[in-house]
Design goal:
- By secondary structure, the protein is α+β, with helices and mostly antiparallel strands.
- The protein has 2 domains: 3-118, D-amino Acid Aminotransferase, Chain A, domain 1 (2-Layer Sandwich); 127-284, D-amino Acid Aminotransferase, subunit A, domain 2 (D-amino Acid Aminotransferase, Chain A, domain 2), CATH 3.20.10.10.
- Helices cover 27% and strands 29% of the residues.
- The protein has helices at residues 23-27, 45-59, 67-80, 154-165, 209-221, 233-237, 269-281; strands at residues 3-6, 9-12, 30-38, 41-42, 85-93, 111-118, 133-139, 170-174, 180-183, 187-192, 195-198, 225-228, 241-246, 250-257, 260-261.
- Strands 7, 8, 9, 10, 11, 12, 13, 14 and 15 form a 9-stranded mixed beta sheet that branches. A 6-stranded antiparallel beta sheet has the order 2-1-6-5-3-4.
- A hairpin with a 2-residue loop joins strand 10 and strand 11 (195-198).
- It is globular.
């Protein structure tokens, strides 16, 4: 029976109850994180918690939980749920009020909920056995504060569903000027002439933790030129390699964008080297 955490208590998932008046349910008024772990070892724990705290600050949700408190909570959840390859989902909403009102209410306590779920084994840097993706492209129609990892994910869900309906694994999103922002549930990198590029951070995309770790690791441990710069749709379609990155995907090579094959439909050698470096150094964070 899966054990979860809810407002200071560890209990079976079936016993966890949250009020229907909770603003996370009524408004999506909250933030969340997903921290990957492999055999009890978490990846990017502190950067994930820092991003959670940044989101809480943006939403003016006050929570006194400290970094070590979060670590203790996550480690106990892992131990209660048999470790293995698990994602740790943490959600903090503003809490439950007695009435539904758009304005932030005063005097209510945040709702803190966390649980674990199985994730695939860590990707292996093997061109012949890589998990690959086919993607479609569309105009980004989400809100203008995508840097907040909000539980209000309807825009992302609708874009992801576009991919599903076209038998694709993901949907790449482009702004009104046809510049890449991100994908519906991933950040995006391209490679051209051995130059690795990802869009710069802005309110149009999530500051992905895997994105951050990859940039740090490549800049420290590789000889490749790595940049944050605007990427046009033409750049994507003419790229030597395209990658999706997220906590669960790590680095996933894209082999087709719309009707265009990338690198003749096979993962690239630079992806292989980058994934190997990420696998080696991801537990340093």
């Amino acid at each position: 029976m899966n054990q979860v955490y809810l407002n200071g208590e560890f209990l079976p998932a079936e016993q966890a109850k949250i009020s229907p008046m909770d603003r996370g349910f009524l408004f999506g008024d909250g933030v969340y994180e997903v921290i990957p772990s492999y055999n009890g070892k978490m990846v990017g724990f502190e950067p994930h918690i820092n991003r959670l705290n940044n989101g809480l600050k943006e939403l003016k949700i006050q929570l006194s939980t400290q970094l070590q408190d979060w670590r203790t909570l996550c480690e106990k959840l892992l131990s209660l749920n048999s470790s293995g390859n698990l994602g740790i989902y943490i959600q903090v909403s503003r809490g439950a009020d007695t009435k539904r009102s758009h304005a932030y209410p005063q005097g209510i306590s945040p709702t803190v909920f966390a649980f674990t779920f199985e994730i695939p084994a860590a990707p292996v840097a093997d061109i012949n056995n890589a998990r690959t993706a086919k993607v479609i492209t569309t105009t980004d129609r989400r809100w203008q504060r995508c840097h907040i990892k909000s539980t209000s994910l309807l825009g992302n869900v609708m874009h992801y569903q576009q991919g599903v309906e076209h038998s694709a694994n993901e949907t790449l999103l482009f702004d009104q000027s046809d510049y890449l922002t991100e994908a519906s549930s991933s950040n995006v990198f391209i490679v051209k002439n051995r130059h690795i590029v990802t869009p710069p951070l802005s309110t149009a995309l999530l500051p992905g933790i895997t994105r951050q770790l990859i940039l740090d690791i490549l800049r420290m441990h590789s000889e490749y030129r790595v940049s944050e710069a605007q990427i046009s749709k033409t750049d994507v379609l003419n790229a030597d390699e395209v990658w999706l990155t997220s906590s669960s995907k790590e680095l996933m090579p894209v082999i087709q964008v719309d009707d265009t094959l990338i690198n003749s439909g096979i993962p690239g050698e630079i992806w292989q080297q980058a994934q190997a470096l990420y696998s080696k150094h991801k537990f340093d964070y």
